[in-house]
């Protein structure tokens, strides 16, 4: 697909090519590899790049995955982390871009789950670092004042909402964060 610049902008069009696409049933997702090259340039030029797009397909807009899909959601979050860690040749972790239709409900829920799973060392089931239940919960001072309870999920959502209002929109989305964390702790 060739993408032309918006009217009034002096830029070259670029070509987006779907290099590979795979359905991963156990993670309920599609994994696509895409390349972006300015039109007329060699694909190996410094202005070109390749990225992986991951799409979780069992998460409805304004909702949460069904209970039977929550195991695949945890697998998806772990797969995103694994793909991200394995992508650069230099061993660094490139940024992950997360979005849904509005960029707040499902996006905030995914970011909160990923962040908390990383904090508790639960992203990789085979991680060599053992889980330490005595490890204190993450503490981020809130601009809104102290929370009444030291709840890591509430703290994470609060911190996200300070950066972008409405992150994790619905109480059902908050509940699914707890459910995914519980499932991950049970896996350990």
Automatic annotation (TrEMBL):
<dbReference type="InterPro" id="IPR000387">
    <property type="entry name" value="Tyr_Pase_dom"/>
</dbReference>
<dbReference type="InterPro" id="IPR050348">
    <property type="entry name" value="Protein-Tyr_Phosphatase"/>
</dbReference>
<feature type="domain" description="Tyrosine-protein phosphatase">
    <location>
        <begin position="14"/>
        <end position="184"/>
    </location>
</feature>
<dbReference type="InterPro" id="IPR003595">
    <property type="entry name" value="Tyr_Pase_cat"/>
</dbReference>
<comment type="similarity">
    <text>Belongs to the protein-tyrosine phosphatase family. Non-receptor class subfamily.</text>
</comment>
<protein>
    <submittedName>
        <fullName>Protein-tyrosine phosphatase-like protein</fullName>
    </submittedName>
</protein>
<dbReference type="InterPro" id="IPR000242">
    <property type="entry name" value="PTP_cat"/>
</dbReference>
<feature type="domain" description="Tyrosine specific protein phosphatases">
    <location>
        <begin position="74"/>
        <end position="175"/>
    </location>
</feature>
<feature type="region of interest" description="Disordered">
    <location>
        <begin position="127"/>
        <end position="150"/>
    </location>
</feature>
<feature type="compositionally biased region" description="Low complexity">
    <location>
        <begin position="140"/>
        <end position="150"/>
    </location>
</feature>
<dbReference type="GO" id="GO:0004725">
    <property type="term" value="F:protein tyrosine phosphatase activity"/>
</dbReference>
<dbReference type="InterPro" id="IPR029021">
    <property type="entry name" value="Prot-tyrosine_phosphatase-like"/>
</dbReference>
<dbReference type="Pfam" id="PF00102">
    <property type="entry name" value="Y_phosphatase"/>
</dbReference>
<feature type="compositionally biased region" description="Pro residues">
    <location>
        <begin position="130"/>
        <end position="139"/>
    </location>
</feature>
